[in-house]
Amino acid sequence: MPFSFQNAVLLRNANYINGRWAASRSGNTFAVTDPATGEAFAHVPDSVAEDAREALEAAHAAFQGWRRVPAKQRAQIIKRWNDLIVENTEDLGRLISSEQGKPLAEGKGEVAYAASYVEWFAEEATRAGGDIIPASVPGRRMFAVREPVGVVAAVTPWNFPAAMIARKIAPALAAGCTVVCKPAEDTPLTSLALVKLAEQAGVPPGVLNIVTASRENAGAVVDVWLDDARVRKITFTGSTPVGKHLARRSADTLKKLSLELGGNAPFIVFDDADVDAAVDGLMAAKFRNGGQTCVSPNRIYVQAGVHDEFVEKLTARVAALVVGPATDPASQIGPMINARAVDKIERHVNDAVSRGAKVKTGGARVNRDGQAGAHYYAPTVLTEVVGDMECSCEETFGPVAPITRFRDEAEVVAAANGTPFGLASYFYSRDVRRIWRLADQLESGLVGINEGAVAAEAAPFGGVKDSGYGREGSQHGLEEYMHLKYLCQGQLD
């Protein structure tokens, strides 16, 4: 393996169903590879429909018991889960870096980020109160109470294998729901390790179940949950086409949905911005996890008056980034997740250059000695980018910063909103009137104002338009796993 581990119990290679670790009924497995080398270092079950159905049966059977566990007791279990995650930060960070590729410092940072959601929802579990409604007639009492929706199916992505599990499973458990989960095929080990820690924290059998599956079998596994009316909610982070498919398939059973889908985030720098702060913000937002984040700026608009200064300063910073494996402490940009990801980045850059864009730094694959199977791409700055280039129309999901020069505010707002997506937006300005105009006009679920790192466990995270609906984090994130029941009692006079 790329790293050694202190707590070997975290290295799981089995499904977890009804409190038991077991192989798939198919008997098959698939490989987990290190993106830094392309070499397989673990194998996990390649689950089939029968495994998914068994997990659902367990979750359904456990629901009535779990929902009746007092909220304070559920909170204590989730808090113990948080404590175990924090205690195992080093190993979990290494596991993330091994299968996902991000530098070790980022891997450990993700563990802290994941734990923040677990701790938050442990506390929120005891705050899911209802309302007393003033009665409209004498002798009547009216109440609104919140109840768990039921069995939740969680489908998680590969780019943040710990944080996405935490953002979905912690609020579900806090609300009193039970869970079936399928993690991304590229990064199942982190998810399995977190479930192991949840087991150690005292989550009862059947309350949390996880099955792994290859890309080829993923559809068959999830289809079981989509077709069964006992699954009352789907929570998914991933591409917009898959999210729309899940929404269509959920219609027959009218499941509740939380969909955090694709992005195409604009990053706008105005003439009145603090240019150094804007460069810092873009570096944090764009190059975290090698640009493989859903809120990563994908279209960078810089006003003409500061364009050249911004490009010069940004290029110097990007050119200095160190590309390498997570095992190298100096690495700042790790490998991309797989060969398809690098192919897409290369296609976007080549398309832009062929149509007039200029490469200021990067613009090519990186080949490292002894790592022929690695998936590296050099951090890249492009200028003279226009709106119909592929890198402007599609989410690149890599370390490429395409810069477009603009003249006035109306022009850039129209360009920023001229996309089907609406997850995140960023802008830098010191004009307070402009700040409030753009905060109102930008069509996205998150807006960073003179700030490149916007996510926090206490804040609602989610998008609009083709970026989905529903929110994760904050008090609103707990409400996504509950429904409201109205109680009316009469004849009290």
UniProtKB/TrEMBL annotation:
Domain Aldehyde dehydrogenase: 21-486
Domain of life: Bacteria
Keyword Oxidoreductase appears in the UniProt entry: yes
GO BP term, example: gamma-aminobutyric acid catabolic process
Pfam families: Aldedh
Gene Ontology MF: a single term: succinate-semialdehyde dehydrogenase (NAD+) activity
Keyword Transferase among record annotations: no
Keywords on record: Oxidoreductase
Active site: residue positions: 260
InterPro entries: Ald_DH/histidinol_DH, Ald_DH_C, Ald_DH_CS_GLU, Ald_DH_N, Aldehyde_DH_dom, Aldehyde_DH_Superfamily
UniProt family annotation: Belongs to the aldehyde dehydrogenase family.
Protein name (Swiss-Prot/TrEMBL): Succinate-semialdehyde dehydrogenase (NADP(+))
Organism placement in taxonomy: Bacteria, Pseudomonadati, Pseudomonadota, Betaproteobacteria, Burkholderiales
Gene: gabD
